[in-house]
Amino acid sequence: MAENTARRKLPGSLDTNRNLSQWLDINGDGTVTMRPGKIEIGQGILTALRQIVAEELDVNLERVRLVTAVTALSPNEGVTSGSRSIEESGMAFRYAAAEARELLLARAGAKLGVSIEQLSVSDGVVSSRNGGSVTYWEITDAELLKREASGEATPKSHTQHKIVGTASPRVDIPRKVSGAPVYVQDLDPPGMLHGRMSRPPSYNAELISVDLDDVRAMPGVVAVVRDGRFLGVVAEREEQAIGAQRRLTRNAQWREEPTLPEFDPRYLLKLQAKSEVISEKAAAKIAVGGCTFEGEYTRQFLAHASLAPSCAVAQFDDGKYTVWTHSQGIYPLRAEMAPVLGVPADDIVIHHVEGAGCYGHNAADDVALDAALLARAAPGRPVRLQWMREEEFAWEPYSSAMVVKTRATLSDEGHITSWQMDVWSHGHSSRPGRGPGSNLLAAWHLEKPLVRAQTANPPLPGGGSHRNAIPIYEFPHQRVTNHLIPDPPLRASALRGLGSQCNVFAIESFMDELAVAAGVDPIEFRLRHLVDPRGRAVIEKVAAMAHWKAHHKSDGDQGRGIGFARYKNGAGYMAMIADVELAETIRVPRVWCAVDVGQAINTDGVINQIEGGIIQAVSFVLREEVKYDRERVTLRSWDDYPILSFADVPEVVVALINRPELAPVGAGEGTQGPVSAAVGNALFNASGIRLRDMPFTRERLVAAMV
Amino acid sequence: MAIFITVNGRMHDVTADAATPLLYVLRNETGCKGVRYGCGLGQCGTCTVIIEGKPVQSCDVPVSAVAGKAITTIEGIGTVEHPHPLQRAFVEEQAAQCGYCATGIIMSAKALLDVNKSPSDAELKQALSKNLCRCGTHQRIMRAVKRAAVEMRKF
């Protein structure tokens, strides 16, 4: 291992997957094959990665073929999450392709009898200044990239980029809008059977009795599986599986206990927490003089609410499994499935196939294990299992409820002299591979269950519950404390932005409240406390875009507010201004956003991600909460979880401050916090009502008015 | 009793039970995988098809109710090589993130544009009111439908 630690650190995921041939093939037929370990979840990553490879190799985009991730072949890049794919996979491909180009040029130079400096490349044709030329496709062979990356190749300077930094169209959209069978839900191999699960009515429900025989006798039923309280069916036809599942559910008797907390995130304050000071400046003493203010902000559990319930196809042959899944991490999933299935990980091959947008860790991994367990009951035939809508809503892992308390002292001159913030939350990740124990739902329900793994909380600087809990404003005294409560009463895992949505909502709402108290315009107040020039630039840019007028006074039902953050305190900068209209409910007709994600690989891809993130976050802040009573999660259908519809979505205007000279950082997740705060601040500006509990439902609005 | 349906102009002899939701027949018997399961309750629109000119959520209608009727799915209006103006406009506007909602939305939009060649924003939002999109691609989708409307008026 000493040898390993002495090895040179390579860029991105190249560091852990060091052979060039793991990433790329230069083929004799005029194509390039790339094998990312990251996966497409509607964020356009595969298009951006192709741009990087085509750019460094100097070939046209059309030549680049892409193999989607499979455990048998692809580099292990862990999980596709955290807006890290450009930083990890993108940088691996940038350096791998740059080195491949150098190797090709060395061969071309030898063949043409000239030095490398004499060569130029256009779409794979290497030309010498003396007139000779040869193509990549003529000089490549299987040996070319069978070597460890040196990390010494020099990628192009941004000034040479022709493909990177453009709005290259997404490669996947034409097939998607034509209705082609592109999703894992659409797989239909010969002999395929259909599975469905019958779930307990609540997390800890105990199975008292179930009649399996009359389900077995139903037409088309191939197998009925009971293992502990894991109940499922396999049938020849999908509608038969659904019918059998319904019968099985009716036939099961359960005993339930009230195990869930009150329907208010403040239950978190009553539980034992592991508390850790994560930022402390100076003595953190409250300064003498000035006025002290306090705030308390909350949010309920949020659902990923993918439009497609999770799905997998699995096949069991001779003791080995093949699984097709939309999991964000095929290697961690395989490692987590192996002990449940009782086989070595090598006996499971996992193919990634696209699913619908997931926005984090939903039931994708769970359904893969379910499908494998059902497939075991029907050896030799593929079994497709798609969760039902009510099952996805009731059983997916949610984003944790949160409470944030703030306290600050404002000097008579209108400066914040001390800042204190306390965050209460459960952990924000229960992805596979975070054991001990298992994070897969079915593993807990089997006759011989595996213990449920403790919910993890990704560490700083990225952070989980404490993501963006440390303000990037400059305060002379500061203390931020994270109170982590283990064992969430509802399943909890990663949702786009993790804790940043509530933390930024709290910081930016409180900043607004302090600005009002100081009698200072909210934008001027932020700039007064912000040194970082890139942060200042996005705030100033969005103010100009929205024609922000200092001390804008509302007429009582229309208002305007700002929110700002640097995602993870180290990634993209986002500033938003939202307009709010107050009628019977709160409407957000417009949002402006200025964003700086360093170098934008695909400019339209970044803008598409930002627009979507903003609209989703407006839905979070206005509408979304996972409903539960003392026994059950009661969320079952879209009626219970009314996300924004076409009639309600804001018009979104995004300006990109592209900085091609800087490293690229991910774009997809940084919007949630700033836009949530901007909406709250606009509501206050409109009406004088300050809502500190999300979502801003009509009930909360009415309660705040009286 | 045998049920026949007409899907994208072709007669199809249904083998499923009469009470089976049309969605499963379209996906599993006629191979129309572009008709997608989202909720099974007629709430999200991913399974939208056009039946006799009207957008219908196919998860919420038994196949027996559409016997003998002409059903159009996303596969019936265009292909990657020969896209319908709506499909072309969705590509031109890059009006998709994950794309799972797109096919249902295109069918709802087509049903509108077939009877209203110049819909207002309000009419368009009304026509798409039963289609959800979770990625937040709404404004690109609105732009794409309006672009397609312009194209379709030329014919």
Short description:
Chain A is of the alpha+beta class and 706 residues long. Chain A is built from 18 helices and 25 strands.
Please give the share of residues in helix of chain A. 25-40%
Which segments of chain B are poorly predicted (pLDDT under 50) over 5 or more consecutive residues? none
- Per CATH, the class of the largest domain in chain A reads Alpha Beta
Enumerate how many helices of chain B there are, as a single number.
Answer: 5
Instruction: Give the C-alpha Rg of chain A.
Output: 27 Å
Structural class of chain A: alpha+beta
Describe the global form of chain A: globular
- Sheet with the most strands of chain A? 7 strands, mixed
The CATH top-level class label of the largest domain in chain B: Alpha Beta
Average pLDDT, all residues of chain B: 97
Write out the CATH superfamily name of the largest domain in chain A: Aldehyde oxidase/xanthine dehydrogenase, molybdopterin binding domain
| Tally of discrete structural domains of chain B | 2
* Percent helix of chain B: 25-40%
Uncertain ranges of chain A: 1-5
> What is the radius of gyration of chain B?
15 Å
Q: Categorize the overall geometry of chain B.
A: globular
Overall mean pLDDT of chain A: 95
CATH topology of the largest domain in chain B: Ubiquitin-like (UB roll)
CATH superfamily of the largest domain in chain B: Beta-grasp domain
Straight-line distance between termini of chain B: 43 Å
